[in-house]
Amino acid sequence: MTELLPHVLSALILGLLGGGHCLGMCGGLMGALSLAIAPERRDQRLRLLLAYNAGRILSYALAGLLLGLAGWALASGPLAIVMRGIAGLLLIVMGLYLAGWWSGLTRIEALGRGLWRHLQPLARRFMPITSPSRALLLGGLWGWLPCGLVYSTLLWAASQGNALHSAALMLAFGVGTLPVLLATGLAAERLGSLLRKRGVRVAGGLLVMLFGLWTLPGPHQHWLMGH
């Protein structure tokens, strides 16, 4: 469990500081969701937005659990050391993205476009939002929206070799994305501007890359743990 804590912290940082990408991918959807709330339910907007985000975060955890089962099967064999290496490299790549030094991971978004084409018509059936249950289901569907940051985090989480750990990391990632997207739905801008500050993003990116280096197999782990 102690070894999992740095990964949970990494997942939270990825979600929180990945807010700029989340705003680009989901900010418009959050605005659309707010507009889709039935007029007689506008006084319950916060409650409905929370239900939507709960569904989205739970869908991340479910994806982590499912892909984590495949990761567990691979980690039980001789590929365990390879998967740990992949996990470390993915963290370094995501740290580079957070710091604004390289955005290649966004190319992974193409992997989910076919699935989203099938889910999008179903998601429209839940609009307008008239109850928390409809918001929860809609959020659960929108959690599968193609997103390079989500997919990269999912691959990293699955490489842990433990399905429950993978689900926990995706849950932590989802919780990290909550402040920015919830603030967007409530038309709050201060938090988003803070998280987009260059210094904050670089510091977060460097911390995630440090965890990536710590994850990579090798004698350097003992030196990092000592510092």
From TrEMBL:
Q: Which organism is it from?
A: Phytopseudomonas flavescens
The name on file for this protein is Urease accessory protein UreH-like transmembrane domain-containing protein
Query: Does Transmembrane appear among the keywords?
Result: yes
User: Which branch of life, at top level?
Assistant: Bacteria
**Urease accessory protein UreH-like transmembrane domain: residues covered:** 11-212
Q: Which InterPro entries match?
A: UreH-like_TM_dom
Q: Give the residue spans that cross the bilayer.
A: 12-37, 57-75, 81-103, 135-158, 164-188, 200-217
- Record key words, sorted: Membrane, Transmembrane, Transmembrane helix
